[in-house]
Amino acid sequence: MTAPVFVVDSAAGVRPGGTLVLDGPEGRHAVSVRRLRVGEDVVLTDGAGTGAYGTVTAVEGKDRLTVAVAEVRTEPAPPVRITVVQALPKGDRGELAVETMTETGVDAVIPWAASRCVTQWRGERAAKSLAKWRATAREAGKQSRRLTFPEVGEAHTTKQVAEVLAAADFAAVLHEEGATPLATAELPAAGSVVLVVGPEGGVAPDELAAFAAAGAAPYRLGPSVLRTSTAGTAATALLLGRTGRWS
């Protein structure tokens, strides 16, 4: 069983032989929920690629513990970075999509307000919904023992998504009528890959045209039609295998 992961504000400057203190909400979760005790192994990460591996040496009250650092690991940036542009699903399926994509290994998620989305983020709801997506990515990153948590960007319009696609080294729109399978697409050996996942109602023709003009052709995943909350996870897994990140 691998050691549990908790988040610290910063792991900069941490060295083997040093100590780190975990307190606040993360410390409370470690002490009062996980009930960690002296002598147990733990990993403290900043979520930006650095992890301090050590042992609990002291527990104070209900929300504070001290960790003696035995090893510090830094994850290198992947040669191929995968970003999923996720159309806003209904209900809590957006958090489900972020959770499973994070567990699978996606590097970034961009919420997209597609024209056919039933759900629309506006005003206070937009801020709350984005905060939920980001909190979900953080918790799923901890659960899956990641040292680098995916970035969850601000909600994008179709025009903004097209700009992201135009800057990518490979861009694709997942579409059931795509002529080319994503499994056979020619991928870059390094750089950025951006995938667009449409809403349950599908990507509108004008959106497909805008994305095509930006260099993103439609690709299909397989013979079955996946829900918007699962397509990004399936596509991410496929590309992680094809780019060697799961080798």
From TrEMBL:
Catalytic activity as recorded in UniProt: uridine(1498) in 16S rRNA + S-adenosyl-L-methionine = N(3)-methyluridine(1498) in 16S rRNA + S-adenosyl-L-homocysteine + H(+)
Domain Ribosomal RNA small subunit methyltransferase E methyltransferase: 78-239
Keyword rRNA processing: yes
Chief localisation class: cytoplasm
GO biological process terms held by the UniProt record: methylation
Pfam families: Methyltrans_RNA, PUA_4
GO MF term list: methyltransferase activity
Keywords from the named record: Cytoplasm, Methyltransferase, rRNA processing, S-adenosyl-L-methionine, Transferase
Ranges for domain Ribosomal RNA small subunit methyltransferase E PUA-like: 22-68
Locations listed in the record: Cytoplasm
InterPro entries: Alpha/beta_knot_MTases, PUA-like_sf, RsmE, RsmE_MTase_dom, RsmE_PUA-like, tRNA_m1G_MTases_N
EC number(s) on file: 2.1.1.193
SUPFAM superfamilies: alpha/beta knot (SSF75217), PUA domain-like (SSF88697)
Role of this protein: Specifically methylates the N3 position of the uracil ring of uridine 1498 (m3U1498) in 16S rRNA. Acts on the fully assembled 30S ribosomal subunit.
Annotated family: Belongs to the RNA methyltransferase RsmE family.
Protein name, UniProt field: Ribosomal RNA small subunit methyltransferase E
Organism: Streptomyces catenulae
